Amino acid sequence: MAELSTWESLPIAGAVRPSGAPRTKTGGWRTGEKPAVDVSLCVNCLLCWLYCPDSAVTLSGETFTGFDLEYCKGCGICADVCPVAAIEMVPE
Ligand code: SF4
Ligand code: SF4
Fold this sequence. Notes:
alpha+beta, Alpha-Beta Plaits, 2 helices, 21% strand, binds iron/sulfur cluster
């Protein structure tokens, strides 16, 4: 039986930088709904940006601008966390 390695002998893992890995587009398998925003209601709290699991909320500097539907999977978290109900999930 092969001898097991100790943790000290394992190579140090590297960190994968976001720019170092290809982003997998999610638009092809979205849930069937997508977020739609009424920007007149938006107070730019950026909670949607913070909670989106796919980094699909887009900003211009520190200002909310919308969604990148190539990466949105339609989970609706952004709509749930928006404090002013500016985001609504709508059918594709
Ligand atoms: S629906 Fe989900 S994946 Fe799409 S923008 Fe909102 S939080 Fe992100
Ligand atoms: S959570 Fe709502 S109010 Fe906050 S930035 Fe997003 S859309 Fe605007």
